[in-house]
Amino acid sequence: MSELSFDDISYAMETTVVAHEPDRLIDTFGTTNFEFQLLTEPMDEVGKVRVREGRMEAERPKILRPEGYDDLMFEGFGEQAEMFSEWFRQNGNMNFFKYGFNFAKRNFTESVVHESVEAVRDRILDDIRISGNPSRALILGVDDTWEISLLRFTIEMVGRSVNVNAFDFKRRGML
């Protein structure tokens, strides 16, 4: 892909759909692992779905230093994460992040399936229900900016977790 623009990031953020969120939140005092499956449709190939699978690690939250977003790091991601960090610094809600996080993607695989995105989505959702795994996520994203779609999921997980994390820090006298 050529140079990534802020418009590309905005488009990916707006069109990404988290079809299934993990049942658990980010742990306050330990590392949390999430399994993800991210579905995208290649722009020039009808009837194909790219399935990306892996694991996200959210390290334990840290109390944010005054410089705030300077410690936002995405280990294992490519240049899209660097552009995303810059975009988020300019467009994100400064009150959203209360802590610094490191995120890493692990055990990454990618395959192409010759089915509709709806059929693949429905099959994976059925598998998630049957397995009962509380750490699985299913994301529908944009093919060229799929890492941005994965980062959007990550930000949503932080948003769901931040109040519990803040409560835990306060309870232990750390805030």
Q: What does this molecule look like?
A:
The radius of gyration is 17 Å and the shape is globular. The longest helix is centred in the last third of the chain and has 26 residues, at 146-171. It is of the alpha/beta class and 175 residues long. α1 packs across α4 (146-171). The chain has helices at 6-15, 79-91, 117-131, 146-171; strands at residues 17-20, 32-40, 49-58, 62-63, 73-75, 99-100, 102-113, 136-140. The strands form two sheets. Strands 1-8-2-3-7-5 form a six-stranded mixed β-sheet, sandwiched between helices. The protein has one domain (6-171). The model is unreliable at 64-68 and 93-102 (pLDDT under 50). The relative contact order is 0.28. The chain is built from four helices and eight strands, in the order αβββββαββαβα. A hairpin with an 8-residue loop joins β2 and β3 (49-58).
Shape: globular
Number of domains: 1
User: Which class best fits the helix and strand makeup?
Assistant: alpha/beta
- Please state the average pLDDT score: 81
Tell me roughly what share of residues is in helical segments. Answer: 25-40%
Give the radius of gyration: 17 Å
* Unreliable residue stretches: 64-68, 93-102
In this structure, how is the largest beta sheet organized?
6 strands, mixed
Question: How many distinct beta strands?
Answer: 8
- Work out the strand percent: 25-35%
Spatial order of strands in the largest sheet: 1-8-2-3-7-5
Q: How many DSSP H or I helices?
A: 4
N-end to C-end Cα span: 43 Å
- What are the secondary-structure elements, in order, as H or E? HEEEEEHEEHEH
